[in-house]
Known about the structure:
Layout: H1 2-30, H2 36-54
Amino acid sequence: MDKLKAAQKTGLIIFAVLMVLTIVEYIVGAVENPSVVLLFIIGLVKAALIVQFFMHIARLWSEESH
């Protein structure tokens, strides 16, 4: 049960971080001359978080999954 609670807490934290990054991305994109590099970096960070925590890619290389 503790693993489930920890996984839920991690999921909620990552979801909150993704929400904050989306708001920042919107604000950066809404300015008159948006920084494309900053938008690209934010997009990469969001993609990395989704792949790492929601797609469980790390399990592919762990011994547990075999």
